[in-house]
Q: What sequence folds into this?
């Protein structure tokens, strides 16, 4: 027989002013099973908690209901108090008579009656609670970092420097990401590669980091502390161990006219290639789509000339299986291309380029060695128009959000152009200038005031070609919408930053949620910005939303510290409110019929198949089993189970049933 | 109540009975199977399930439009399993249930042999779910509309376009009040394979066991929900009901809804996802506000 | 005779609607007292049997509410729930059970005002529909007593 104690809190006036707490306590005393029922001014105060602890001991309570504020507020407080008095903390429940009652209703009998009803519901529930212990799971102290851009690099280094192992997976042949493509960085105009490449080298040389370049995540199973990652190491067709990076192969490859992705299509590369000179690892990859040997079976120049005999045409993709305890997702972003814009010529004008292409033109390592020369004829443009918000904040384009980085890099672009071409004219069309950040607004002012960039507030409606010039038609909305027409030699569109095309598939592999733009969702927009809703998986950088370098680095360090926090313990403690499949005596063994509907509803793949065998190993039947490490306790399986063979602690069938019946 | 139940189709196929018997005899003789499950005449002009274990028993096998009870229910019974491998005289509804059972991991490949007649009167010998799915559409009477329905005058409340909710409530209240909770519907249903039915679990006792209005309603709602997306419309439940409640109307209504809303039809493939254990982000309703 | 006071039982998920109702409280918004909330982890957990049990416990109306699609704490529980309600609601309607008495809603943790509105409109709707005597008459006296442990 249950011995339940009911503790009604006045919360000062908060509850006491509208609910007759003494009457609630008195009404509760007549509920069958209730042996103790009191009210008190502040239950959460020290004397209030002492009241509970003493009653637990003296009245030998088997369950406690605290009628007070929301369990989201003080459940841990009262559960701890019960535990200190020797009652299992999961035998304590809270009736929410403040947020759900006293604060939302007027003083009166009906409000008191409602409070009493809520207490009765929770009394019936707590009678059916059972003692539970937190679940302990071991932690594999290796982190998987997905993406080798600046965010992934920073996260890897931070985790590795804290003494933990890191596996860094990058899909491209080299780490570096978009940052490696940039010319100079705002607001200080330091060269991107100069600050990035030392970090890249540090990653390659760090004893705690295993770098898997040219590799992709195949699948991720398991749960926090205990993930199993399968990683596809794509065939480079080059033996990384033998290759010395001498670059004979890339110089001699006859297939030279392949647009380079690193140079945003503005430069060419060979079929066996290293994306850029400072690549890490500095080992080439054969692009089999374009390689003459793979297309025709003839050539093999690289293989013949390689002094280290490292070329391996027969090399196959390799699948690695790795145990990891945490995942940092830092897979970055993409920018939309100029062909996304019909009004600006669908990308058919070679001198209408996007911001990333401009970065390559302005970069000392780029195809023009840092001279601003337009792609069509290599001439130095005399007038350049920069368009901020190309696609961003544009509902018609389906991109409602602000890409955040464009205002700043457009100012930088105009500035760099003016530095390099002193006689040139730089026009910037903008909607608003969003330069929030340390030294950011000053930077934009500098572009306008010192470097003479001409800022025009307005949108560009059309760009077309006439007499060898690009005619940019827009309006200056600060001058009452006066039409403007500029004859430009080159136009740079600050095209919208978007999620990378593989983001959705990756999110599904990781079981993390994403927003309607396919950016990954953080667990809480303000308070948990680096966590995902899947425990043990963290976010860093622009895969979550467009971000600049300092923000990406800050978030990466945040994610790294979360990982280190997780790795600081050998065992993880988890709430035991999880589902379980019942087990009964032979010959049934369980009422589970083995239909496995639970398997397909489970968002966490926590349902396993368990075959019950005789002692001799002969299979009797196959039933469902819940992996307690994976189950998060949503209870969707419980609701679909026809036979109620599966149940959820804390929200069990008998508890919910009794709660409803308590209101009869 | 029996006279209010009529069949909408039901071609008599006795002419081809001899071919079926012949094939069954061959299977028994060769030892491929140890028992033939089919139909035979029982008392009072009724049809009963029949288990033929010797060639001479086969003379008693019949197959006509009275053969509605779904023989698939016997395949999972331990007493029947103990007889050895079975060959089953198969009608399209039975084959649909086998496909659905296979989709739910409750029919293993080649567990039994199914003998069905095609439209030319040839005997088909089917065993795998793949074979069944391949021929099912071409079998006579396979349109899925061969279950029994009550006569129209008995259910004005359900006629197309009726918006009279209270009339529907009154109709079903009256129907369900006749239920004596004998669970013949459950016993006749091949999809009711749970060892412990929800109604038999008593911690908590979700559904009151006594035959009274509320318990009966809750029982039939539960059964309908449990069969939603799984019922293959064989009509065995209505046929088995001693009170003549047109149970399959409820199941069929939900089957139609599920097909309309989610494009899934039970008993069409062994690879079918259960409509209520999957979802689509584009599921559309208008009532969640 | 005093005005009919509907009895409403609400099944809500812990992460969105329960928290949203907490917000209604912290914002001190007033709403009708008739609702009794039963907390579940997720709408995916809300068995249709609970709705039937609420009616057989004498409820005149039921509220079922959870996270908006896309916001489920458990990523997909509410999508499963939505499908289940689509089927269950049409079944109830086919059997002539008054589906206007079951209010389904999405109320997020930020929608404190919406929770007040959901409760108030449901109470007003049920007041208009009157007591659910049609269903309550099915309940035989003493047939189902709450059992003790």
A:
């Amino acid at each position: 027989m249950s011995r339940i104690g009911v503790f009604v809190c006045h919360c000062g006036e908060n509850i006491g002013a509208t609910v007759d707490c003494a009457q609630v306590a008195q009404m509760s005393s007549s509920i069958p099973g209730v042996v103790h029922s009191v009210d008190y001014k502040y239950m959460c105060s020290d004397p209030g908690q002492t009241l509970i602890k003493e009653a637990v001991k003296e009245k030998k309570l088997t369950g406690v209901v605290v009628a007070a504020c929301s369990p989201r507020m003080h459940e841990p407080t009262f559960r701890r108090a019960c535990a200190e008095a020797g009652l299992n903390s999961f035998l304590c429940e809270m009736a929410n008579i403040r947020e759900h009652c006293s604060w939302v209703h007027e003083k009166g009998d009906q409000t008191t009656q409602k409070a009493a009803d809520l207490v009765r519901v929770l009394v019936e529930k707590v009678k059916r609670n059972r003692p539970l212990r937190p679940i302990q799971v071991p932690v594999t102290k290796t982190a998987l970092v997905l993406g080798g851009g600046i965010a992934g690099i920073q996260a890897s280094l931070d985790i590795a420097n804290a003494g933990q192992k890191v596996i860094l997976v990058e899909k491209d042949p080299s780490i570096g990401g978009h940052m490696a493509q940039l010319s100079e960085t705002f607001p200080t105009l330091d060269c991107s590669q100069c600050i990035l490449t030392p970090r890249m080298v540090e990653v390659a040389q760090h004893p705690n980091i295993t770098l898997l370049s040219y590799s992709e995540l195949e699948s991720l199973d398991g749960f926090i502390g205990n993930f199993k990652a399968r990683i596809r190491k794509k065939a480079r067709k080059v033996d990384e161990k033998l290759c010395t990076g001498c670059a004979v192969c890339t110089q001699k490859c006859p297939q030279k006219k392949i647009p380079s992705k690193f140079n945003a299509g503005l430069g060419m590369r060979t079929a066996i290639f290293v994306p850029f000179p400072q690549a890490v690892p500095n080992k080439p990859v054969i692009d089999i789509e374009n390689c003459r040997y793979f297309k025709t079976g003839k050539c093999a120049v690289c293989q013949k000339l390689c002094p280290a005999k490292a070329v391996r045409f027969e090399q196959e993709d390799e699948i690695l299986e790795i145990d990891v305890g945490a995942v940092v997702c830092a897979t970055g972003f993409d920018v939309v291309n100029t062909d996304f814009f019909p009004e600006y010529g669908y990308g058919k004008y070679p001198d209408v380029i996007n911001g990333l292409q401009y970065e390559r033109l302005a970069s000392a390592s780029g195809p023009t060695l840092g001279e601003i020369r337009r792609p069509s004829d290599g001439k130095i443009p005399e007038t350049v128009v920069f368009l901020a918000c190309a696609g961003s904040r544009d509902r018609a384009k389906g991109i409602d959000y602000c890409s955040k980085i464009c205002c700043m890099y457009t100012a930088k672009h105009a500035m760099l152009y003016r530095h390099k071409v002193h006689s040139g004219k730089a026009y910037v069309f903008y909607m608003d200038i969003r330069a929030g950040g340390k030294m950011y607004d000053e930077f934009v002012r500098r572009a306008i005031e010192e470097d003479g960039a001409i800022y025009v507030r307005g949108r560009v409606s059309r760009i077309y070609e006439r007499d060898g010039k690009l005619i940019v038609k827009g309006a200056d909305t600060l001058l009452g919408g006066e039409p403007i027409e500029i004859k430009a030699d080159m136009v740079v569109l600050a095209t919208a930053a978007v999620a990378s095309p593989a983001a959705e598939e990756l999110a599904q592999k990781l079981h993390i949620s994403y927003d309607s733009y396919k950016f990954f969702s953080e667990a809480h927009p303000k308070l948990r910005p680096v966590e995902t809703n899947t425990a043990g998986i963290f976010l860093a950088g622009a895969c979550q939303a467009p971000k600049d370098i300092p923000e990406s680095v800050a978030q990466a360090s945040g994610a790294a510290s979360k990982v280190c926090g997780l790795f600081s313990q050998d065992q993880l403690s988890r709430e035991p409110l999880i589902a379980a499949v019942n087990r009964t005596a032979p010959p049934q063994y369980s009422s589970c019929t083995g239909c496995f509907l639970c398997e397909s509803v489970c968002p966490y793949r926590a349902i396993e198949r368990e075959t019950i065998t005789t002692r001799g190993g002969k299979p009797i039947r196959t039933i469902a089993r819940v992996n307690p490490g994976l189950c998060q306790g949503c209870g969707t399986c419980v609701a679909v189970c026809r036979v109620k063979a599966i149940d959820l602690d804390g929200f069990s069938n008998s508890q919910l049933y009794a709660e409803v019946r308590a209101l009869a | 109540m029996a006279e209010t139940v009529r069949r909408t189709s039901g071609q008599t196929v006795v002419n081809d009975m001899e071919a079926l018997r012949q094939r069954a005899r061959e299977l028994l003789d060769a030892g491929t199977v140890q028992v033939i499950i089919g139909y035979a005449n029982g008392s009072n002009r009724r049809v009963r399930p029949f288990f033929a274990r010797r060639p001479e028993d086969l003379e008693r096998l019949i197959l006509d439009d009275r053969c509605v009870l779904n023989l698939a229910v016997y395949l999972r019974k331990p007493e029947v399993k103990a007889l050895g491998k079975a060959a089953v005289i198969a009608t399209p509804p039975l084959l649909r249930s086998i496909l659905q059972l296979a989709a739910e991991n409750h029919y293993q490949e080649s567990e039994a042999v199914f003998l069905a007649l095609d439209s030319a009167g040839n005997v088909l010998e089917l065993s795998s779910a793949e074979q069944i799915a391949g021929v099912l559409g071409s079998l006579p009477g396979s349109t899925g509309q061969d279950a029994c329905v009550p006569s129209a005058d008995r259910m004005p409340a359900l006629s197309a376009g009726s918006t009279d909710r209270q009339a529907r409530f009154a109709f079903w209240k009256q129907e369900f009040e006749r239920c004596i909770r004998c669970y013949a519907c459950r016993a006749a249903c091949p999809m009711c394979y749970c060892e412990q039915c929800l109604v038999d679990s008593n911690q908590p006792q979700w559904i009151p066991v006594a035959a009274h209005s509320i318990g009966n309603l809750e029982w039939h709602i539960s059964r309908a929900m449990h069969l939603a997306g799984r019922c293959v419309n064989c009509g065995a439940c209505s046929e088995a009901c001693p009170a003549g409640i047109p149970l399959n109307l409820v199941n069929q209504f939900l089957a139609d809804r599920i097909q309309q809303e989610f494009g899934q039809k039970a008993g069409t493939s062994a690879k079918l996802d259960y409509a209520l254990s999957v979802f689509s982000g584009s599921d559309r309703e208008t009532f969640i506000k | 005779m005093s005005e009919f006071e509907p009895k409403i039982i609400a099944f809500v998920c812990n992460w969105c609607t329960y928290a949203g109702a907490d917000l209604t409280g912290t914002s001190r918004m007033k709403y009708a007292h008739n609702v009794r909330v039963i907390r579940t982890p997720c709408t995916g957990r809300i068995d249709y049997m609970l709705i039937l049990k609420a009616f057989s416990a004498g409820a005149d109306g039921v509220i079922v509410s959870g996270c908006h699609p896309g916001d489920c704490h458990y990523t997909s529980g509410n999508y499963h729930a939505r499908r289940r309600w689509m089927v269950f609601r049409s079944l109830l309607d086919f059997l002539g059970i008054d589906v206007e008495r079951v209010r389904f809603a999405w109320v997020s943790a930020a929608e404190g005002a919406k929770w007040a509105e959901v409760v108030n409109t449901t109470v007003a709707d049920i007041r208009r529909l009157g007591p659910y005597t049609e269903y309550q008459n099915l309940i035989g006296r003493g047939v189902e007593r709450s059992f003790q442990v």
In short: Residues 1-14 of chain B have pLDDT under 50 and may be disordered. Residues 127 and 187 of chain B are 24 Å apart (CA to CA).
